[in-house]
Amino acid sequence: MASIKMRAIREGEVPPDGGTALQEDADRPVFNGNGPDDYICVKCDNVLAHAMHPIQMTKKVRVKCGVCSTINVAVEVDGEVPRRPAWPGGRG
Ligand SMILES: [Zn+2]
Question: What is the C-alpha to C-alpha distance for residues 69 and 44, in angstroms, rounded to an integer?
Fold first, then answer.
């Protein structure tokens, strides 16, 4: 089983109507699944979601760490790959 580090959500990034799971007990992951990976807090490495499938950990899944109160999200974007800037002097 691998441990995947989540990332901190930016200020204002959480939609007002968005749901954030609060880890009330720092010793117990908020989610328990049967997938291959643990998801851990970006700041303190606390396990927030245990045995999850990557497809379960979308941007809608946010977890507030019970140890350091950091709001974590698993992925950078929801379904969309950001466009890369054109290479200088390269192919358009
Ligand atoms: Zn934490």
Answer: 10
Other Cβ atoms closer than 10 A to 89 = 5
| Span from the CA of 67 to the centroid of ligand 1 (angstroms) | 5
pLDDT at 83 over 70: no
* Closest CA relative to residue 46, chosen from 25, 19, 32, 61: 25
> 42 CA to middle of ligand 1, Å?
7
Q: How far is the CA of 38 from the centre of ligand 1 (A)?
A: 14
Q: Is the pLDDT of residue 23 over 90?
A: yes
